[in-house]
Amino acid sequence: MEALAGQNSKWMQGQIVLALIIGVLVFLCLFIFGIPHPLLLAVLRQRFELIPVFGQFLAAIPGVAVAFAAGGVPEALWVALLYFVIQQFESNLIYPVVVKKIVGVPPLLVILALIIGFKLFGFLGVLLSVPLAGALQELVSDIDRRKTRALAHKGLAPDGDAQ
Fold it and tell me: Suppose 8 and one of 14, 44, 130, 131 were both cysteines; which one would form an S-S bond, judging by CB atoms 3.0 to 4.6 Å apart?
């Protein structure tokens, strides 16, 4: 259980770092495109970023609404496209890299864990899948280290492992 608690806190740290990165990216893009209230919309996006899967879509609603109020349909479509591009960039590049760096779970395992978690347990599975994958990875790593140490004590470890 200790490994799971450690992975949960690391996963939350990763989510916070991800939210900060996405918030800054959204602010810069909205500011460059001249959308009113870019800081407020970026902070909203950061907060919604902490909600797995659906938060990204919920965060687009205020951004598109503000753009529509400020410039009509063309502006709203541009902002919707901007949010979509940022979401794709986040899902396919930023999220796997952040989780790998902070939690230590490889990107492919993150994607597989999210898919399996969603298929088995829905939204709750999405929330718990990455921390559980990290804990499982740590458990397998610990078992492997113990096995290697046991073999080293018996003199059966592969070259370079027994010292």
Answer: 131
